[in-house]
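Example: LysR family transcriptional regulator for bpeEF and oprC.
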Amino acid sequence: MDILKSIQTFQQVVEDKSFSKAAEQLNLVPSAVSRQITELESWLGVRLINRTTRSLHLTDEGRTYLSKMTAISRQVNDLKELNSVDERLTGHVKISAPIMLGQQHVPQIISSFNKQHPDVKISLVLMNRMVDIIEEGFDMAIRGGKLSDSNFHARMLGEVSFKTVASEAYLKRSAILDTPSALSEHNCLVNMATATPRRWTYKVNGKQKSFKIKGSLEANDSLCILALAREGMGVAMLPEQYVKMDLATNNLTEVLSEFATEPLPVSIIYPSSKLMSKTSRALIDYFVSAFNEID
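Written out as structure tokens, the predicted fold is:
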């Protein structure tokens, strides 16, 4: 049994949550993938995956071994890089990011990085669910807010300020909006690309307070929410970068500015329990440098 190849197969099965999909990625037949997993389980003396006809799930032992195997894979990659005859970056880096954060700046940054390092494959996965970085095969994740998991390293990328906006046409025909509590009388544009789409947070009397909002329109894309606000369809809360031009040209008007919360910190995190490849380290450095140059 080729232990390294079996480890790679196991990691691919976990990432794809499917034997057939993993087989396709590895250019193998499903029976070969199944045989490698069975041999690996027999060699380790534990069951790694519980299989049914419709799904598969890691066992507790499988999660533990996955973490260890990921570290081994990183070390093997580092050994290969030490023997490299040039300084080219290679490999595959998988990044997770929330939809709203991932729409801004990130595509331009990875595009610029890839132009400099064309042998690197980058997978950017945008979702609002907080992924399990190790179990789901991610190398790093961009996250907003304060980080509490000590199992991860984090590097600060920047901050995101949010603004509450509406068109003048909407404000003229609607109730006065001078306090966050008045939002209950307004049609708020529900942004499903946020972690708490139906709750907006403001600073009231020096304390953070969450307000429940409601509205007849919702979308899972911030640019769509911005377009609806421009059309006078309601009140929106969006990152400052999204609305900066509209505020400057008076297409939109900011409201509730005196209740604005502190900017949301944005970080890039990665597991501290595994050695990083040279490519992953370079990409993280590139992200930090690129965000520092953003106005």
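The two ends are 54 Å apart (CA to CA).
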